[in-house]
Amino acid sequence: MKDIYILAIETSCDETSVAIVKNGHECMALTILSQMDIHASFGGVVPEIASRLHTENITMVLDETLKKANMDFNDIDAFAVTNAPGLLGSLLVGLECAKTLSFIYNKPLITVNHLAGHIYANNLANNLNFPLLALIVSGGHTELIIMEGDYKFKKLGETLDDAIGESYDKVARVLDMPYPGGPNVEKLALKGKPSYELNLPMKNDSYNFSFSGLKSNVINLVHNEIQRGNKIKKEDLACSFQTIAIKEITNKVDLALKNYSEIKNMLIAGGVSANKYLRSEIEKVTNKYNVNLSMPKFIYCTDNAAMIGAAAYPLYLNKKFSSLDISVKSHESLV
Ligand code: KG4
Ligand code: ZN
C-alpha cells in the first residue's frame, strides 16, 4: 500500500503546531511554537492574544515543518486539524488554514477532536491494542475511557470540577511559580516530603475525580500559615499536593482495572502524563494487574500537531472526511 502523509495543524490553545505524520505512526517533522512566555506574564492563557499570535505565526510554522521534512504541499495526502474542544478564536485560525490548503490542493480535510489527539499520541511510539483503558490528564480534562477499537469510546468517569492540570497550575500560582505550573510543581515536589496533611478528594467507589477541594485545601493552608506569620515549606507542600492528586488518579485506575479484568492494555495521555511521579505510580498499578502500559514520548504529551496527524490516520482509512462548511466547537466530548 502507498504511504500516506498527513499534514496536521493544532492551534486549540497556546501552541501553534504543525506536523507531517506518515501512516499514522511516524512523525516526519514537528514544529511547536509555544506562546507560553507571553501568557506567563498574565498568569494564564489570554484567548484574544492567543488567536492573534496563531494568525501571525501559522504560515511560518507551516513552512518550517515542510522544510524539515524536505517535502512540499503536493506530497501531502490529507490535511488534518483540531476543530474541538478549545478556545474558539484559536481553533478558527487552524481550521481556516486547513480548509484553505484542502481547497487549493484538492485533498481531504480531516477534523480531529483534541482529546482523541492526546490518546493517539500513543500510536507514535506503540500500537494501540484494544480493548484498552485510557487515562486523559490535561489542563482542561481528566477522564477515564474504555476503547474497544479505533474511535470506539466509552466514558467510565471524569472530573466533577477542576481538571488535574488546572489544579497543578493553581497550586503553582499560590506557591509563586509561573504558568504553566505543572512542571514547576513537579520539580519542587522532588525536593520535598509529603509532610502536610491534605484530604483525599473522592473516597467513594465511582470512577469520577475531584480536584477543586484539594486545590482549596492547599490555598487555605497557605493563607492560614501566612496570617499566623509561619513560613511555608514550599517543597513539602508541593510534594504533599502531588502525592494526594496522583493518589486520586491511581485509586480510580486501580478500581477500573480491578472491575474490568478483561482489559490488559492501558495508556496515559495529555499534558500531565509528562509527570514522572504519575508515570511511576500508574506503572505500579498496571504491574499489579499485569496490564501493558503505553506512555507517549515526553514531546507528544503536551499539545502538539503530531498527535493530531496520528489521530487523523484511522479517519483517513475510513474516509471520514469533513466538508468545508464545518466549524469549531469550544466543547465536544469523545463519547
Ligand atoms: O495537554 P496540555 O498540553 O493542554 C491541554 O489540553 O490542556 O496540558 C497542559 C497541562 C497544564 O495544566 C500543565 O501544567 C500540565 O499539563 N503539565 C504538567 C506537567 N507538564 C504539563 N502537570 C504536571 N506535571 C508535569 N510534568
Ligand atoms: Zn491538550
What would your notes on this structure say?
The protein is of the alpha/beta class. The chain folds into two domains: 5-121 and 300-317, ATPase, nucleotide binding domain (Nucleotidyltransferase, domain 5); 130-295, Nucleotidyltransferase, domain 5, CATH 3.30.420. Helix content is 42%, strand content 19%. The strands form two sheets. A five-stranded mixed sheet has the order 3-2-1-4-5, with helices on both faces. A five-stranded mixed sheet has the order 8-7-6-9-10, with helices on both faces. The longest helix has 26 residues, at 234-259. The chain starts with a strand and ends in an 18-residue tail after the last helix. The model has no long low-confidence stretch (mean pLDDT 97).
What secondary-structure arrangement, pairings included, does this model have?
Elements: E1 5-10, E2 15-22, E3 26-34, H1 36-40, H2 47-69, E4 78-84, H3 88-105, E5 109-113, H4 114-120, E6 132-137, E7 142-149, E8 152-158, H5 164-174, H6 181-190, H7 212-227, H8 234-259, E9 265-269, H9 276-288, E10 292-294, H10 306-317
The structure holds 5'-O-[(R)-(carboxyoxy)(hydroxy)phosphoryl]adenosine and zinc ion (ZN).
Over all CA atoms, what is the radius of gyration?
20 Å
CATH topology of the largest domain: Nucleotidyltransferase, domain 5
Question: What is the CATH architecture descriptor of the largest domain?
Answer: 2-Layer Sandwich
Q: Largest sheet at a glance? A: 5 strands, mixed
Bound molecules: 5'-O-[(R)-(carboxyoxy)(hydroxy)phosphoryl]adenosine, zinc ion
